[in-house]
Amino acid sequence: MNQEDINNRTIALAVKTSKLTTKELAKALTAFLRYIRKRHREGLTPQGRQSVKKLMNHRVATDAIPLDGETRLFDAVARKYNVDYAFHKVGPKKHLLFFKAGQADAITAAFSDYTKRVVVRAKDRYPPIREQLQREAGRAQPKSREHSRDKEVSRDER
Fold it and tell me: Lesser CB count within 10 Å: N end or C end of the chain?
């Protein structure tokens, strides 16, 4: 074999491997279409907080939990756990939290984190009752004494 023959065989091999057959082209196009459809479906399905109607249109089973308190605090926690949910207002500061039944574990984790945050906030806002009573008792005594002295002084001046 001479050099020219080797070059011709190499070129022939490169041409054969670079040609696309119709089957290969069809496979590539269907894979590309599947990819586009998947991305389109993801865009159509809302994520995170949404209306109850949109959540029901996901065509999956849903559950509900009563939620008393702030919804904004739960929003922050739910974003962290990447869950799909919706609120339905029942009364003042009372809501029903709807979520996908398949995400029950994530909702449970989010709800426990939410309750921890609520408890921490409540402790920060309101000190124990005994401390409040001691503070108020300490504040009330000096004021009442000063007030009574002022009255006595004003009576003596008359």
Answer: C
Query: Distances in Å between the alpha carbon of 5 and those of 8, 9, 11?
Result: 5, 6, 10
**Structure pTM?**
0.48
**99, burial (CB in 10 Å: exposed 0-12, middle 13-18, buried 19+):** buried
Integer Cα distance of 87 and 151 in angstroms: 59
How many whole angstroms from its chain centre is CA 4? Answer: 68
What is the tally of structural domains in the chain? 3
**Average pLDDT score over the chain:** 80
pLDDT tens by residue, 64-83: 888 887 788 888 888 888 88
107 and 152 co-located in one domain: no
Same domain membership, residue 33 and residue 76: no
